[in-house]
Design a protein that fits this description.
Number of domains: 1
Number of strands: 3
CATH topology: Multidrug-efflux Transporter Regulator, Chain: A, Domain 2
Largest sheet: 3 strands, antiparallel
Order of helices and strands: EHHEEHHH
CATH class: Mainly Alpha
Strand content: 5-15%
Distance between the termini: 68 Å
Helix content: 55-70%
Structural class: mainly alpha
CATH architecture: Orthogonal Bundle
Strand order of the largest sheet: 1-3-2
Radius of gyration: 22 Å
């Protein structure tokens, strides 16, 4: 494996993704591998971008949010704009995740109560 470029197989192995995933991100213009015929060679920049894409997806960022954040890298202000925008989107996502967690916790509690009620009903019918 070269330090400079990786094949699609090496990328898949390194990042635990499928070739289809890499081609999808390429089609969405999130990754820009070097094309040599049918062969794709991914640069260090592509690897860094994929790492950020996967982290963003893990946190629930949309692909459009991720694209916009990646595009801000080239602004020439030492990534200050990119970082500020990332923080803004991350705070919004964090708030949404907390709300989802609270709703899920409430649903879990309600389901637990229903299970206990059902078990008591069964015990009383024996």
């Amino acid at each position: 494996m070269s330090e400079e470029v990786m094949t699609i197989r090496e990328m898949c192995d390194a990042f635990d993704v499928t070739p289809r995933t890499l081609r999808f991100y390429e089609a969405k213009e999130l990754l820009f591998p070097i094309r040599e015929g049918q062969k794709r060679l991914f640069t260090r920049r592509d690897r860094a971008r994929l790492k950020l894409i996967l982290r963003g997806k893990r946190f629930g960022f949309s692909l459009e949010d991720i694209r916009q954040l990646l595009d801000l890298y080239t602004m020439g202000d030492q990534q200050k704009t990119q970082l500020a925008e990332t923080i803004k989107i991350a705070r919004q996502r964090h708030a949404a995740m907390i709300e989802q967690r609270d709703e899920l916790s409430q649903a879990i509690d309600e389901l637990h109560q229903q299970i206990e009620w059902g078990e008591r009903e069964l015990e009383g019918k024996n």
